[in-house]
Amino acid sequence: IGDRLEILSSRQAGAVGFVGPTHLGSGDWVGLVMDDRCGKHDGSIGDRRYFNCKDGFGLLLKLSQVRRQ
Fold first, then answer.
1. For residues 48 and 30, what is the distance between their CA atoms, to the nearest angstrom?
2. How far is 11 from 24, CA to CA, in rounded Å?
3. For 19-26, which contacts have Cβ atoms below 8 Å and span 24 or more sequence positions?
4. What is the pLDDT of residue 69?
């Protein structure tokens, strides 16, 4: 939590707010609090909260989609 990661496909960066399983699919996921308003949510999807951030700054991605900055 708090480590800086970069999205491989876009090179946008954020801080880790969550790591673990989600209802989105198998395996572990990472929740990022993005530096810029390029996210999709506030750390929750539906009625499930994974982490907290301002609306539009949160993303949940598979670990294979990110790398340490």
1. 15
2. 23
3. 19/63, 20/50, 22/48, 22/50, 22/60, 23/48, 24/60, 25/62
4. 85
Average pLDDT, the chain: 96
> How much is the pLDDT for 4?
98
Q: Could you please report the per-residue DSSP string of 1-67?
A: ---EEEETTT--EEEEEEEEEETTEEEEEEEEEESSS--SBSSEETTEE-----TT-EEEEEGGGEE
Q: How far apart are CA 35 and CA 24, in angstroms?
A: 23
